[in-house]
Each structure stands twice: as structure tokens, then as C-alpha cells.
Specification:
It contains eight helices and nine strands. The mean pLDDT is about 95. The protein is of the alpha/beta class. It has a single domain (about 5-245), classed as UDP-N-acetylmuramoyl-L-alanine:D-glutamate ligase (3-Layer(aba) Sandwich), CATH 3.40.1190. Helix 1 (about 20-30) links the parallel strand 1 (about 5-15) and strand 2 (about 35-45). The termini are far apart. It has helices spanning about 20-30, 55-70, 85-95, 120-130, 140-145, 155-165, 210-225, 230-245; strands spanning about 5-15, 35-45, 50-55, 75-80, 100-105, 135, 170-175, 185-190, 195-200.
Length: about 270
């Protein structure tokens, strides 16, 4: 038996809620085999990131090369890249591969506001990774960081999508989950021709850790399975809604979303 193979290039979350842990769970849920390239080892839980160790750029590159030398990667995503050196190493490997199903999730801050990407890394992503991307998927804060201006409503999101696409990606989806407008969570998708509002139910939960990781990993998985960019984004939005609906109260802070289908076997009321 064979499965399409996808790759995540991201940080490790010791609490299991985001990063490569969330990505691999999402890959499994979407029906692809997941491989992982670790960029940074973070010490975190449901209440925040308390420490991190960014891997040497050469080690990150060697992980990618080992995977590419042995497996046919059909889709990939980048998450936390941490530093300009790591972002540059990732770009250098990808530039020689001709991979046309890359999702760039520009993780600049943790869920609690800690910086996860240096300023020089933002520039490397802009100049070298975005031109390789099939889908660029920033949230409102990340889009603002790339453009240098705030986003406060859907019209701003549409303008941002147009401006971000000029940086090189084939498609942009600006995630509007943090926009406090109405009862729906609206994302804006733009591919140079089509500007599409993607509305979904706003799930009421405080346990949202890993939402962005699940979204970008699901897009990469659906691209790996042969979907078009808009099809992959639409399916990923449904995957995120399910993950939010099944989110878990674990630990004393913001619990993780649950991307796997159905409730966990050990699910029980919390005392």
C-alpha cells in the first residue's frame, strides 16, 4: 500500500498542541504520510513558551535532504522557522527541488505573543520562500507584519491579500479568525483573479492552541492528494472547524484543538 507523502518544516511543541505535533496529527487525519523537519525545540505547555533551542541551520537542511533523497514529497508546509539562517537554509533546499505544492505559514508569534521569528527571518521568507509558495496563509497579525500596517475589517483583508500576492505566492489566504466581526469566521482567498470570502461558523471555545498549524498542514495534505489550491483551502477550513469543535481541555491554560476525526477514545468529563 502507498500513501502520498507530505512534509512539515516547523518547531516542536513539547505540550503536543501545535507545531510538528499538530501537523503530523493533521496529516494522518487527512490521509497522507507525514514527515517532519524540526527547526526549533520549544519548551511549552498550555500556558506559554518558557524556553526554546533553535537547531543549527545545517541540521535543518540535512533533515530535509534526507527526506527528499528517499521519498517523493507531494506537498509541504513551513511553520516556525525561528531565524534568518534557518529560513535561508530551508529556502536553499526547496529552491532546487521544484516542489510546487508548498504552503507557507509565517509563524511570527506564539499564541501567547512570544516572538518566534526574528526580523531578518521575515525578510528571508519574503524574498525567498514566498515566490516558491502555492499558498501563503498568514493570520491578521502576520499579514500586518509583512505589510507594515494594521488590518481591522474584511476590506482591509482583501487589500492585504492583493498586496501579499505581489510578493510572489500563487495564492494567498488571509485568516480572519481573530477579526471580531459577526458570528462567522471569514477568511479571504485570492489567486490573482478570484477574490473569495470563505465563511465558517465561529466555534465558541477557549481551547484554540494549534489552529493555524492544523489549517496550513491540512492545506498541504490536500494539495499532496491532488486538490487545487482553492479546494485544499476550503477542505482545510472544514478540518479546522472540526478540530475546534473537538478541542480539548488539557492543562491549566489554552488547550489544543483536536484534528483527528471523532472524539479520543479516552475522552471523559473533566473534574
Amino acid at each position: 500500500m502507498e500513501l502520498a507523502v507530505a512534509m512539515t518544516i516547523a518547531g516542536s511543541d513539547s505540550g503536543g498542541g501545535a507545531g510538528i505535533q499538530a501537523d503530523l496529527k493533521t496529516f494522518y487525519a487527512c490521509g497522507v504520510h507525514g514527515t517532519c523537519v524540526i527547526t526549533s525545540v520549544t519548551s511549552q505547555n498550555t500556558q506559554g513558551v518558557v524556553d526554546r533551542y533553535d537547531l543549527p541551520a545545517g541540521v535543518v537542511a540535512s533533515q530535509m535532504q534526507a527526506i527528499f533523497s528517499d521519498m517523493d514529497i507531494k506537498g509541504a508546509k513551513t511553520g516556525m522557522l525561528a531565524t534568518a539562517e534557518i529560513a535561508g537554509a530551508v529556502a536553499e533546499v526547496l529552491e532546487g527541488r521544484g516542489l510546487d505544492r508548498l504552503v507557507v505559514d509565517p509563524v511570527t508569534l506564539s499564541s501567547w505573543g512570544q516572538p518566534l521569528l526574528d526580523e531578518a527571518g521575515l525578510q528571508v521568507i519574503t524574498e525567498r520562500l514566498l515566490p516558491l509558495a502555492r499558498v501563503f496563509a498568514p493570520n491578521l497579525g502576520e499579514a500586518s507584519a509583512f505589510l507594515g500596517k494594521g488590518i481591522v475589517d474584511k476590506e482591509d483583508m482583501k487589500e492585504a491579500a492583493r498586496s501579499l500576492r505581489e510578493l510572489g505566492p500563487a495564492c494567498v489566504v488571509v485568516k480572519g479568525g481573530h477579526l471580531k466581526e459577526g458570528e462567522e469566521a471569514v477568511d479571504v482567498y485570492y489567486d490573482g483573479e478570484n477574490m473569495i470570502e470563505l465563511a465558517g461558523e465561529r466555534v465558541q471555545t477557549e481551547n484554540t492552541h494549534g489552529t493555524g498549524c492544523v489549517f496550513s498542514a491540512a492545506i498541504a495534505a490536500h494539495l499532496a492528494l491532488g486538490d487545487t489550491a482553492i479546494e485544499a483551502v476550503q477542505k482545510a477550513k472544514k478540518d479546522v472547524s472540526r478540530a475546534l469543535m473537538n478541542s480539548l481541555r488539557i492543562g491549566g491554560g489554552r488547550g489544543p484543538v483536536h484534528p483527528l476525526p471523532g472524539p479520543p477514545r479516552g475522552l471523559r468529563p473533566r473534574k
